[in-house]
Amino acid sequence: MQEGTMELMWRTSPMSGGNAHYVEALYEQYLVDPNAVPDEWRNYFDRLPHPDGSPAQDVPLGPIRDQFYQFGKRRLNGHAGTVETSGENKKQVKVLQLINAYRFRGHQQADIDPLNLRARVEVPDLELSFHQLTNADLDTPFQTGSLFLGKDVAPLKEIVEVLEKTYCRSIGCEFMHIVDTEEKRWLQQRFESVRSKPKFSKEVRRHVLERLTAAEGLENYLASKYPGTKRFGLEGGESFIPMMDEVIQRAGGYGTKEVVIGMAHRGRLNLLINILGKSPSELIEEFDGKKVNEQGSGDVKYHQGFSSNVMTPGGEVHLALAFNPSHLEIVAPVVEGSVRARQDRRDDTDGTKVLPISIHGDASMAGQGVVMETLQMSQTRAYRTGGTLHVVINNQVGFTTSHPLDTRSTEYCTDIAKMIQAPIFHVNGDDPDAVLHATQVAVDYRHQFKRDVVIDLVCYRRRGHNEADEPSGTQPMMYEKIKKHKSSREIYARRLVKEGLVSEDDTKEMMEKYRDDLQAGNHVANALVKEPNTSLFVNWTPYLGHEWTGDADTSIDMKRMQQLAARMCTIPDGIQVQRQVAKIYEDRRKMQAGGMAVNWGFAETLAYATLLDQGHGVRITGQDVGRGTFSHRHAVVHNQKDGSTYVPLEHIAEDQPRFTIHDSFLSEEAVLAFEYGYATTTPKALVIWEAQFGDFANGAQVVIDQFISSGESKWGRLCGLTMLLPHGYEGQGPEHSSARLERYLQLCAEHNMQVCVPTTPAQIFHLLRRQVIRPLRKPLIVMSPKSLLRHKEAVSSLEELANGKFQMVLADQGKLEAEKVKRVVLCAGKVYYDLAAYRAENERDDTAIVRIEQLYPFPKEELYEALKEYTNLEQVVWCQEEPLNQGAWYQSQHHMRVVADMLKNGMGRELKFAGRPASAAPAAGYMSVHTEQQRQLVNDAFNA
Fold first, then answer.
1. What is d(CA 596, CA 408) in angstroms, rounded to the nearest whole number?
2. Per the database record, which ranges form the Transketolase-like pyrimidine-binding domain (predicted)?
3. What distance separates the 2 farthest-apart alpha carbons in the chain?
4. Residues linked to residue 690 through DSSP beta bridges, in sequence order
5. Does the domain at residues 558-728+738-803 carry the CATH identifier 3.55.40.10?
6. Residues of the chain with CATH 3.40.50.12470
7. Alpha-carbon torsion, ordered 867, 869, 872, 877, to 10 deg
8. Which part of the chain has CATH 1.10.287.1150?
9. In the CATH scheme, what architecture does the domain 88-192 have?
10. Considering the entire predicted model, what is its pTM?
11. pLDDT tens-digit map of 235-282
12. CB-based contacts of 444: which residues, under 8 Å, 6+ apart?
C-alpha cells in the first residue's frame, strides 16, 4: 500500500474525525470476529485494501490503522506464534497441508445441491489419516499459518471445524488455481474470516425474503394465468433475483453507472419484471399476443431486451438487458462489446463505471465454444472490460432430455473459466444467505482485481425445459424429488420465522402485496427511477426515422485533405521503420503531394483521417488489421530498434476522437459479436471488423444471421457495423477465394443492410465516409479486394477523393461510341480489370463494361442511367468469377432483368450468364484449373 493512497483513504473515510474512537472499537472487534460487528460495517471493513508492507516509521498511526497494518503483516509474513511440543515440526507441516487441501478440494465435499442428487466424490486429501494425523491430535494446538482464524494457534479440532464450515457447507470455493498470491490471500480472508457464513442483519434478510417472494410470486401468477404457455420460468432458481438485486446495489455503491446484462431464456421474464422494472401490464399484453413493436417482425418475449434506471447507494445506475436470439451464449460477446463502447465513451479505462454481467445455463456454458472465445478475450487489449461477473443458473440437467454424463467431460460446467484463473463460487440455491455472501465477494473481487469471476448458482428446474414439456419422461428420479421439494422462498421463510425475524403473517402479507401489485399493473422492481437521468443513455435520436438513400456529401476541401494526409504519413524521428514499410510511407507522401496516383491503402487510411478530423471515432479490429493481411495498410508502425509501435492516425489532432486499431486473437465468432455490440452502442463512430480472408467469416455465421442481418427487424436495434471481407479469385483455393457473397445477398430484405463491391481507391474512400456521415445506421458488408490493393490500374486521383462521392454504379470508362455498342457486360469486383484487359487486347469497341458497386440495395435507377445511351444493344451479360450457384447471380438477376426491360429494346429476357460452372466448392484448388476457368469466363462474357 502506497503511503499517498493510505493517507487519502484515511482522510476520506468515516473512520477518521469524531467517529474515530467508535470505529476503532468496531474494527478491533472485526479483527477478532467479523461476525461480531453489524453487517454494514463488516462490508465496509471487507473492502478495505490490504497492505503489502509495513508503513514508514515516521508516519503517525492511529490505533485502528496500527491494528490494520499489524493484521495484514501477520497474514502476509506468517504468524510468529510458537508451539512447544515435541515432534511438532513434522505434524505442523501436515496441519498446514491439511489446511491447503481444504482450500483446494473442499468444494468437492460442499453441500451445494438443493436436491442432494449430486454424488460427492471421495476426497482422501480431507481425511486426517491422509496427512498422518489422528483423532489423538485433535486437542493438540498447532500454528494456524495463513488460516484466517483470528488467532495464531488453535487446537486441531478447531482448525478442522473452521475449514469444514468455510469450504464444505453451502458454498464450494474454487480459487487455488489462481497463481496470483494476493488474489488468493484476499479470497481466503473473505471466506475464512466469517466461515463462509456472515451474520446479516434482520433488515437485510427480510429484504432477501421479499425478493424471493417476488421471484416466486411472478412465476405463480403467470402459471395460473397462462398455464402451459412457454415462459422459461425461474422456479427452482428463485435465489437468482435477490442475487441480481445485491449485485446491482453493491456495484452502484462502488461507483458503477451502467450495468449491461446478457442472458438466455430461463429467468429472463422474472429479471425483466422484478429487477429491471418492466411494467407487468406490458408483459401481460405480450402474453396475450398483442403487437408491441410498431415495425419489423418482432420477437418472442423471452428474447426481448430492456433498459431502465435504478437508485443505489452510489447514485443512479442505468441497467441494460441485451436482446438475444436462441443461440444462448452468443449474447455474451455482444454484451462485452456494448460495455467496452460505454467505457470508452466515459473514459472508463479500468472498468469501474460499467459492469458486464453474463448469465449462463449450465449446459450451454460447458458446451458452446463462444464461451471459451469470450473468456479468452477478457484480458486482451482490444476487448478487456475490467472483468465480467458470470452467473450460471445451474439446473443440473441442462436441457430436459440430457443425461449429466452427456453434457460435459469435466466435473463442473464452470471448469472452462479456470483457463483465465477466474475464481468460481458454487453455491446452494436453497441457502439465500450463502448466495448473498458469494455475491458480495464476487462483486468485491471484480472491483478489487478487475478480473472475471463466476457464481455457479446450483439449483433445479421445477418444470421441464419449457412449461409445455413433461420432464419426468426422461428425468424420473430428479422430478420425483422435485415434486416433494419445498421452494427456496418457503424454506427461507420458515428459517426466518424460526429465528424470530419475521412472523407467518409477515410472509403471507408479502405474498399478497406482491400479487396485488401485479394484478394492478404496478411496477414491482425495487428502487426503480421513474424519471431517469437521460445522460446515462446513448442518444440515438439523430439516427432515427431516416429513409434509405445512397447519397451523402462525402467531399472534402482539397487543401484540408492534403494536410491530413501529410499528418498520417508523418513518423517521428527516432523510429526506425522497416524497409518495405518505409517505401510504402514514402510513396504515400508522393500521393499526398500529387506526384503519384492514389492507391487503395492511401485512400482507405485517409478516409479514417478525415473522419477523425470531423469528430468521428474509428475502431478497427480483426486478424492482421494493423498491417493488413496483404500488407497494404500499415496503420501501426513497428520500431525496428526496440519493437515499440507508433500509430500515426492517433496523432491527427490533439483533441481528436478515439482511434483504436488492434489485431484480434484468432476468433471470428466472439470478435464479430463484440464489434456488433460495440457498434450498437456507438452510433457516431466507424466500427470495422476485417476478416483475414472473407470466407473466415463463416465461423461467425450465427452473428451475421441472428444479429447483423435481422437485429433491426426483430428488436429495432440500429447498427452501423462495417465488415471488410477480402474477396477475389486469385488461384488460392476453396478457402481463400470467396467471402460467400451469395449468403449476404440472401439475407438482404427491407433495406436491412448494404452489400458493396468497390473497385477503386476513390470508391472505398467515399464508401467508408458515407457510412458515418450519412445519418443512416445500417450494417455495411464490403467485398474488399486482395490483388487490387496493388493493381496498377486500380488507382484514383486526389481530385476524385476530394470532389467525388460513392457511385453505386460505375459507367463504362472507355471512350466508346454509344451507337456502336451491341453488348454490355455487367460485373462487380476484381473481374472488371480482367474484362477491361481483354477488351483492350482484342479491340472490342462494341462492348461496354459497367460495374455494379452496390449490389444491395440494388441501384436500379443508377444502372438504367448507365445503360440507356446504348440504343443498339443486342445482348446484356452478367459476368462473375464465382460459380453459377454462388456469387450475385441468383440473388440479383431479377433486378438486372427489370432494368434491362426498361431499355428501348427490352433486353431483360436476353440477360446471359458468364462465369464458372456450378460447383460444390467455392473455387478450384489447382492453379491450372483456376487459370483456365478465368480465361473461359472472360471469353464467354464477350463471345457467348
1. 60
2. 598-791
3. 113
4. 622, 724
5. no
6. 558-728+738-803
7. -10
8. 88-192
9. Orthogonal Bundle (1.10)
10. 0.90
11. 999 999 999 999 999 999 999 999 999 998 888 999 999 999 998 888
12. 46, 47, 190, 250
